Amino acid sequence: MKDQGRKITMITAYDHPTAALLDAAGVEGILVGDSVSMVVQGHENTLHVTLDEIIYHAEMVGRAVEHALVVVDLPFPANHLGVPKAIEYGGRILKETRCQAVKLEGGAEQAEVIRGLTAAGIPVMAHVGLRPQNVHVMGGYKVQRDEERLLADARAAEEAGAFGIVLECIPSAVAEKITATLRIPTIGIGAGPGCDGQVLVLHDLIGLSTGRLPKFVKRYADVGRIIHDAAAAFRDEIREGTFPGEAQSYK
Ligand code: KIV
Questions:
Q1: Which DSSP helix (H) or strand (E) runs through 124?
Q2: Ligand 1: does its nearest atom lie under 6 Å from the Cβ of 12?
Q3: Is the beta carbon of 37 within 6 A of some atom in ligand 1?
Q4: What class does CATH assign to 8-220?
Q5: Model confidence over 134-161: pLDDT tens digits?
Q6: pTM above 0.85, yes or no
Q7: What is the mean pLDDT of residues 177-195?
Q8: Could you tell which of 47, 49, 73 is best to mutate to test the pocket of ligand 1, judged by most ligand atoms within 8 Å of the CB?
Q9: Domain spans of the chain, in order of start
Q10: From the centroid of its chain, how far is CA 12?
Q11: Pocket test for ligand 1, best of 105, 168, 216 (most atoms within 8 A of CB)
């Protein structure tokens, strides 16, 4: 798609019905992100989801998807435990789910792990710029502006064998430069329109997440409101005695 100048769409999913809907809508990539820790499990950051938990979600997603490429995040701190551990974790993900690739946060300092995983037959998507698993080191979720380092990270990930790369929260001009430099596709989130594709967290995109949204999010629906109103209407009808009616009752 990059070679043809066609933009790539990626959205996160964590369960079977949602993944089936996204696949049917024609997105090319589905990410079982460690964002599940925040938007589904209710934690304050992405550090809490375990390998077994992400496999549980990836299994559901993998069973639903017929067309899209499904990528699964290596949960913290899997890619910092050395190549054998990363292969063990990545291998479990590919073996126990129907998903096809893993994503790991990091560029240059993760090159050895990317190389090891790729050599073991586990396709890797890299993730540079803002790395949410590094939140405590970075001192919060901030735009990353060190152009030299960002370019070096992206190049190192490509050289190590990554098939694609997420660019998170970096200036548009830098993302454009990286995109023009690399042969592999760049998937942006808060990285401007010059990337080869875009990814958003599903719950942000459909209006199901709580709290303040990052600047880079655009809401395409208000599903939170729809669920709230449906639950309230159900409650009202029960209180009024209009549910269940004849149509929902047996003779
Ligand atoms: O976990 C996630 O959802 C991600 C995206 C924000 C790219 O890594």
A1: strand 124-129
A2: yes
A3: no
A4: alpha beta
A5: 999 988 999 999 999 999 999 999 999 9
A6: yes
A7: 98
A8: 73
A9: 8-220, 221-251
A10: 4
A11: 168
